[in-house]
């Protein structure tokens, strides 16, 4: 039936869209956490240099 095919196709589109959004979210979270760690490391490095300098 035509309507069954449309419903199944719609479900597939929704499932694929959700999967893509989850993948993008995990990818972004991983890179944001990495950037935060790099920023903290550079701040800590700069802070230790300013303390040791007269």
Structure description:
This protein is mostly helical. It has one helix spanning 2-52. The longest helix has 51 residues, at 2-52. The chain crosses the membrane at residues 6-24. Keywords: Membrane, Transmembrane, Transmembrane helix.
**Taking Cα atoms only, what radius of gyration do you get, to the nearest Å?**
23 Å
In whole angstroms, how far apart are the ends? 82 Å
Strand content: under 5%
Global mean pLDDT? 87
Largest sheet: none
Overall 3D form: rod-shaped
Instruction: Give the helix/strand class.
Output: mainly alpha
Helical content band: over 70%
Task: State the low-pLDDT regions, or none.
Answer: none
For the secondary structure, the number of strands is 0
N to C succession of SSEs: H
Q: How many individual helices?
A: 1
Keywords: Membrane, Transmembrane, Transmembrane helix
Could you list some keywords that capture this structure?
54 residues, mainly alpha, rod-shaped
Secondary structure layout plus pairing:
Elements: H1 2-52
What's the gist of this structure?
The protein has 54 residues and is mostly helical.
């Amino acid at each position: 039936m035509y309507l069954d095919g449309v419903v199944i196709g719609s479900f597939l589109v929704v499932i694929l869209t959700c999967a893509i959004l989850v993948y993008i979210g995990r990818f972004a979270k991983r890179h944001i956490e990495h950037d935060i760690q790099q920023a903290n490391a550079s701040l800590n490095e700069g802070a230790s240099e300013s303390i040791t300098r007269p």
